[in-house]
Amino acid sequence: MSCYETFITLLLHYNKTHNITGLKTKDEIKINIQDAIFPIKYLKNIKTAIDVGTGAGFPGLILAMAMPQTFFYLVEPISKRSAFLHLVKAKCNLQNVKIVNDRIENLKPFKVDLITSRAVTKTDLLIKLAHDFITPDTTLLFYKGESVEDELDKKFSYNIVKRDKRRYLFIKGII
Predict the structure, then answer these.
(1) Total tally of structural domains belonging to the chain
(2) Among 5, 6, 97, 139, which has the highest number of CB atoms less than 10 A from its own CB?
């Protein structure tokens, strides 16, 4: 069984009693896996990454499965979700993952190559929360909806990749 299949099986099982995510079917989970890994082709030379508000594992855990050469810090403050992430990490033997059961603003800062987030908060607040983890070479990849342009500060160098209703927002060179 692949790690993705293990993830799907565990998520469907634990979601019944622990309400990890609103996704209820295998097909919904597969769509979200595809959504998480779609922007990989735009990522180059990523050695370390932090996912803010990982939730059930989208996108950070899924990216970690697809990018074994990258070390991912999955930041998730809700204990039941963090416990689920630990379970998947153990079952899939993901050596490139560290799960942090806390909020990003409580962490001692360290620098990373990539910061990801999906469905956490508006872009400006995400940048503020992640500021101490950003270098001039850090790429921010935020998974946004169709109204992403309403929350963008034009002073940032950004690119938006559109796929269906998803908007993958890439920002670089903030500092």
Answers:
(1) 1
(2) 97
Would you tell me how many other CB atoms lie within 10 Å of the CB of residue 127? 17
Question: Which residue range(s) make up the domain with 66?
Answer: 3-172
Cβ proximity of 79 and 101 under 8 Å = yes
| Gap between the Cα atoms of 49 and 74, Å rounded | 9
The CATH number of whichever domain residue 26 belongs to comes to 3.40.50.150
pLDDT one-digit tens code per residue, 69-99: 999 999 999 999 999 999 999 999 999 999 9
Q: How close are the terminal C-alpha atoms of the chain, in Å? A: 43
Query: Are the CB atoms for 53 and 82 separated by under 8 Å?
Result: no
Using alpha carbons, select from 141, 173, 165 the residue that is nearest to residue 31.
165
- pLDDT tens per residue across span 32-58: 999 999 999 999 999 999 999 999 999
